[in-house]
Write a structure and sequence with these properties.
This is Reverse transcriptase domain-containing protein. Residues 781-801 are annotated as: Disordered. The chain is mostly helical. The radius of gyration is 33 Å and the shape is globular. It starts with 8 loop residues before the first helix and ends in a 7-residue tail after the last helix.
Length: 912
Amino acid sequence: MASSSIVSQTLKSITSVKLKQISKQKTAYEAAKVELLEATDGKTNPERARTLVEGAAKLPAMAPLTSNYNICLDNLKRFLEQAELDMSVSPHLMERYERSVRTELERNSEKYRYAELYGKLVKEWISSRPSADGDSPGRSEMHDQRAAWEAYVFEPKETDKVAIQAALHKWFHESSKDVSRAFNDLAKGFQDFQKSWDDETHFDEQSLKNCMRSLQKSGLLNDEKRTELLEVLNNKVVLNEMVDVLNMRMRMRDSWTWDSDCIVEQRRHLNGRFRFFSDEDLLQTIFLYYIGRKWAVEARKLLMKFFLDPKVMKPASRSMNRQETRRREFFLASRGGAGSGVTSDSVHQKLDKMYKDQVLFSQLPNSMEELRSGYDQEEAAEDIDLALNLDFGLEGDNTEQEARKSHIDVVQDLLKTIQSDLLLRKRLGHDTAVIRSDFKWFGPSTPHSSIFSVLEFLGVNEEWLDFFRRSLECPLRFQGEEDGGQPARLRKRGLPLSTPIADFMAESMLFCLDFAVNQEVDGARLWRLHDDMWIWDSPDKCARAWWVVADFSRLFGLDLNKEKTGSVVIKAAEAVTTGDISSILPTGNVSWGFLKLEPASGLFVIDQAKVDTHISELRIQLEGCKTVFDWIHAWNVYGCRFFMTNFGSLANCYSVTHVDNILRTLRHVQESVFQESVGERLKKILGQRFGVTDITDGFIYYPVSLGGLGLRNPFISYYMYRGPMLNPDEVITRYLEDEEAEYRSAKATFESPDHHAHGDNVVLGVTGDIEDEPVEDVDLDYDGSAGDAELGPEPEGDQWRSDNMDIDAANLESEPFFSFGEYTRHRSRTSKLFGDTLEKLRSRPEAKTLDKPNNIDLPVDWWSLSEEDQWVTLQHAEEVVSRFGSMTMVEGELLPKGVLDMLTQSRFKWSN
């Protein structure tokens, strides 16, 4: 449930006064309305209508009827005056005037009724009390996971420092002189950073605020600490005092120790895993958070500089050699390119850019000001700030500090890229292996000896190593053990969750794995997000990369997670398989969230078994909700956002078939949990708890800003995108046709007399009418990340010359135009068309939104609503306007906005 403890007593009191005032207004209005209607009894028109119109203008409505745009009481008064002598004003017309007034009276009653209901829901939430610690014994998995966590954290694991640093020396000093030079620069960067640490004053008001905002976003703090942090942020006196204390503590960091024990809080996440957070003094938290973040920012800068050195990382795909480049330039007359053959919009460049911009060191911040929540794999779907903003139709805080994509967006982009690339590789005739894995209990299991072996190798001095050692060896107790008489135990293994110090240490260690895979497997990339690892390439390359990962794990004292480790070999019908290497690759499925990679088709499909597991858990969580707001919250975050995220974000590569399967699964979820729709179930809950009946669908689904409860309907997003989705098979077919036409155009231009007479350049991408003729030596080799391993040595013959020969245009004049196989051999580097196709496959289709009706006045804030909320609003507009007179059901001033805002800041506590 969402904790109401974060609502201050002052806000509770103000909200209570507001709700009482609404109740008094409703009572006064209803009494006056009854009196007015009774006054019209026994009268006939036009006197009855005149009594009604004159009385309506005096009613104490929430918005005076004199200002109602649905009727104009002044005009009705004049029409009724006219009716006294003018017989053209028929009785039927007077009845219409009367009905319009009665309708508006009832609409005001409806608005009061729903405003009062809203108030009751808020009061229910404010009055609810979260279960005290220890009230619930928890399920067995809670205790099992705690026992496993304790077995790791309090038992040290020693690894071989000599062997680790020998491996590091091999990777960073024996690979090449360029790598060794770059690594020396990297180590010197860390040394210079340490030397200059005390040259600056670290804390002032602004730097403290930046640190606190980042800390608030991190997910590290519980609700009480988040509330405390918000209060401090707005108190300049306290901020200045904290600045003084923190700067003093920084100067004395050599003697810094833990002032008190840290309390371990066990939080359940939606995937069933529990996470263990340490709750410490806020000042201590800020101090360590700042130091960790400072090191993390510097590490990202230095490690990125090392990786981006063009002489360090091996390229993911083989570059064209001198001979290939000359032949291509000659036959295509592309003399503007400097000979590299690389197109800026090629597949190679797009994947390279994605790897560097989104994946590489994704856990480390760009700056001290950056605001970004941590990466927690599937749990990222329940990111509290994002989830709650979406639940209640609020706009996210898109500041400059949040310019980087969120971690969940990055992993969704990665999944779309893998799926798109697999479709292309399979269609172009190549076997592809895909591996996914992570480390078992990575956070708590990481040996301190491995971490410090790496940090020492990177140039971190003894003073800082000692500080980091003290920061890790924290005295820990569990909640409820504070007064148990048992001494606190020191952390001897593992890293503190969701802290910058942990991110800095983990990324410093795992960057060595990234580099080792690249160097030892001919430029292969390990697509790693924190400890979540993906590799897709030729089966041979994947097998070698997996050997490196397994060997690294053994050396550094880490265990691979069998539950999340698996591989798939996707065979293309036309592929020439070099041998069976399945025994080398890890066993198990390749899956993420509710998606599982199917070997036969090479497509991500829905894993219904996992869905069914979460259906059962969703039912448990909803049944455990004590208030209606909690119930809505649980559905929005779990039943809607979590499920949608784990189905994967929409892209053309997944196809309409996948979307239809998602829609059928969503129906299955609601039928299994409710035996009806989620909205109908919520209506029944409201009826049972508050005795209300005949609740409009609009009230259930409308966003809070328009007076609704904001219950999310997961079907809408999929129907918005389903229609415009492209067929991935057709996209690839069109690409192959265009590629062949492009080749024919280039060949025709080369062979034309004008070309040889004038040496005209060929403009690629222009596909005029070309006579149909067979394509020679078709070699559909996608070299993007695997093909170059299969190319073998250069063949000899008329088309290929030794690199040692001085080939110039004269040598090639007598040769025929190069074959289609040679033309496409390096398509991943040379073809913009190929790059555009990849982009088209992994792109999200444009949403097809609803047309805006001309007969309905849109609310003032219409254009600030999300496309999904606009759909919901229009879907129920006719009923809402009929019952409330406009698309706003409850006026904004009647909503307890302060409490609703606090509700969106509350961290939801899932039932254990």
